[in-house]
Amino acid sequence: MATTLQIRNVPAELHAAIAEHARAQGLTISQYLLRRIAQIEGKPEVGHALDAHWEHSKHRKRAAPGAAAAMVAEDRER
């Protein structure tokens, strides 16, 4: 069952901008905001994404220190 969500103290400029975006897409403000909220909820939070990245990077092979510089120097000698 759907529930109601109310947001108070929305600045007039923000309300006008939201209304314009909704109107441009042929939606009511409620329809527009519901879509935007669904988009936000579908994306991982930055902290979770960074945690996953760092966890994954722990298991990657790393080049030896100076290896990149040695490869560049070797390539320049050719």
Automatic annotation (TrEMBL):
Q: Where is this region: Disordered?
A: 54-78
The GO annotation for biological process reads:
regulation of DNA-templated transcription
Name the InterPro entries on file: Ribbon_hlx_hlx
Source taxon at top rank: Bacteria
Name the chain's protein.
Toxin-antitoxin system HicB family antitoxin
The species this protein belongs to is: Natronosporangium hydrolyticum
